Amino acid sequence: MTTDSANPFAGLRGDTGARDDLVRQLTAAAGDQTALAQVAALAARLLDTPSAHVSLISDVQTIVGGVGASLDDVGVETPADGAVCAVTAGGGVPMMVFDALDDDRLRDLAAVRAGNLRSYLGVPLVVRDQPVGVLCVYGPGPREWSDQDLQLLEQLGTSAVTELQLAVLSDEHEDERLVWQLAVDAAGVGAFDWSIGTGEVRWDDRIRELFGLGDEVFGADVESFHQLVHPDDSARVADALTTAVETCGTYAAEYRVVLPDGVVRWVTARGRALAGPHGAAVRLLGAAYDTTAVQEGEARVARLLEAMPMAFFQLDPQWRFTFLNSEAHRLLGGIGSPIVGDVIWDLFPDAVDSDFEAHYRGAVETGEPVEFEAYYPPPLDRWYEVRGWPAPDGLAVYFVDVTERRRAQERAESAAERARLLSSITDVLTGTLDEELAVAHLAEVVVGPWADWSAVTLIDYSTPHVSAGTGSAEGRDVWRRGLRDVAGWHADPAYRPLVDRYLELRIPSLSDDSFLAQAVRDNRPVFVDQDAARAISAVLEPGEAREVFQRLDPTSTLVLPLRGRERTIGLLTVFRGAGSIGFTGADIADLVDVASRAGVALDNVRLYAEQRDLAEGLQRSLMTAPPEPDHLHVSVRYEPSAEVAQVGGDWYDAFLQTDGATNIVIGDVVGHDTAAAAAMGQVRGLLRGIAVTTGAGPAEVLQRVDEAVQTLQIETMATAVVARLEQTPEERDAGVTRLRWSNAGHPPPLIAVHPEAPETPETTDRVTSVDPRDVTVTALWPDRADLLLGLVPETSRTESVLELSRGCTVLLYTDGLVERRGQSLDDGVAQLQAVLAELIAAGLDQDELCDQLLARMLPEQPEDDVALVAVRLHPQDRPRPAAAGPESVPDNVVEQACSVPAPHTHADDDPRTSLRLPFDATSAGVARRRLVDELEGLGFGESFVIDAELVLGELAANGLEHGRPSGDDTLDVSWCIADDVLRISVCDGGKSAELQALELTRAGVRGRGLAIVDQLCDAWTVDDQQGLRVTAELRRPLD
User: Where are the bilayer-spanning segments (predicted)?
Assistant: First the structure.
């Protein structure tokens, strides 16, 4: 086995630091132990060796007992790395050496080289599972060791370990005894022993000194002891001793003794009675110590507690009051009974399960101080701020009456809450520009804080005979003119329908002496503080209004005029019911404030609404209705911002140039004020005038507007897009239209392409619903952004051209539709593209599409005004959809190739086709076939031909079924085309009575099968000038 010579224990497991500490403790304890030397001597004698020793080994070796060659080394510390025993201890097992000179581990050690050690037998000493030393025997010559030798030495080693442990215990006991003695001495504690059978009492010197006896002889019995106790305490001490003896229990007493010199000293004694063989107490052992300083300190503390203004009481561990100062007596004396000595929970039962109990018990259980505020109900009826400190002998409690502070705080909080409510009412009323919404808010917010239910009445000064004055009128009944109950509210949802019904009936049912009438005429609050139900019922006409009101059953009411700046805007009526107290002075003051704020706010709402209507009307008046060229549906929208009277510079325009081209314009003048609106009107007028009179394309129009703005010194800048829809005859045949546009710094136009033909022959411009992903919406971003109008008049303008298929939708818009705070223009345009695709895919017609675009894209309170123009290109091989409205084109505009060619006419002088057919069922079919052939030959569209055939068939069948033959037994059928109108006539031999029936049918479209005719034709008439003739007109559509 190899070892680290510097640390013989390096190979052992465990904490070597702890082992070293143990070795040092053992070394200190064994320093004067002769028993270890005797163990070493016994080992040397029994094993017949000249030398032996007991050593303790850490980083050094200390021989603590030895004989022979080791005797002189007892108590000497030597390095462990040169000691033979360190090898034994480090190995942890016994070691037998015949000749150390032949042992590689030992031959170089100092004791071997000196010749003192050739043979060696050692066993490790283990204490607390740690090898702490060695018991060994050795001699100067070689020797064989037997197993019996080893067993004998191990037994002696056990004795050595026992001696070491006893030495440590002895040291520890002596330390504890010394500490205890020091503690007793420091505390001044003396002991006594009373033999109950003999009455003998033995005192130690400290108690004798405590009782001031000095060297005097003590009487050595209980009677002598009682003579030393203060007379006022003697009986109490005797009772305590008797109780301890009788119960064989503990003794505790605190009493005064009178010293021989008359000085009084306080003593605290504790003891226990000891039972004899028969269970009765035979002895009482105890201790006593001087507590005079404590008592004097407590007396001083008591005096301080009495003098301080804060209330204080002390509770013992059983929750009994042991002390109260005078302030505590004053604050708690309201309970009307003594306090000291009673349990707190008995004297103050309302404290049980309250904050008081929770905090007091929590402080005692946790040992932590507590601080809290709590209320105790009558008879005290007070708020207290309490601080509690736990101690071994109970709980100390300091407290002050904070009732007035709490009430002041509650008043302040109530005032703050009222101020907050008043402020919130102002916020609510000014947060909307809708007058009726504002008063609905007012009716609701006053309920709860000030009323059980409420009603708000507005005065409409546009009603005749209503004046803004204070009640001047032509008659008493004039007060109700213009009054309108607008909103009501009740705290109980079950009563709200009653309130609504009452307000529907109230004003017409009130008499001229009503409280509402008084408030209107006198312009001052009217207060009914009690029995309001009876008082108001008396001024209500008998009927439903009175019955509904009596079910609401208020006890008090207050009617308050809502005054604006120069007029009364309305009235606020508040009610309280039987479950509430009446209105206090503070309530009335608050409600007067509410009415004042509400009046001004509602006046502002009206003023703002008037200003907004004026501004919006001005803005809209600057923009005209769009034209409606054939097969183009133009829709425009303008949405003002939420700012009142904040007219903007956004505009739209749509007009035709004299060559028939349709122009659409969108623009935005910089600014949001009246100047911007005026500049917008100028720029818009310039642009449309230049475009119409010059016939120029979009880029040239913008160029000329720039020049005109400079020449006319119009100080403004604007963005704009001018787009022109044009078509050649070849493009019409191909079903396409050219879009030519130029952009002056404006958001890009959008083109939406439906994946299939968007319309059906029969109906409108509503398209079939498809997947939004099948709708392509393209933003026409310019390759190079052109400057705004009004910046550089000489700038060149870019013009782009795009070929559009019929069925497309073109959308121009202003930035207010796509720009938001925190959102880029690109993101806004992308969002608009997605919404437009969804709306087109949903199959909306164009007007619905524009409305939904605004609803989906704009916030509830737009910060900017918005204008947009949408154009849908309907297919030209079908009639103009009904939803697109009638065509509207100026007379001086030349129709482009997109219009229908000039109508065909007959080659002969008479354009009429006339047929005289037999009066039988076959004639109708003959007439229909002839008409169809002629119309198809003239190039009429399929839809028109089908409608015309149906009309002719119905008229002929009607004449054959309900009429009678003409004079020559024929049915006369004719038609002609003039001014794009097809007129079809069918004549039979009917009489005037049948004419009257037909006229009634025409008025109600009932009977004689003419409902289909009425639906398909543009007009139809009947007359009996030459038989009974029915004539229907169908206007030829522009294909």
Answer: none
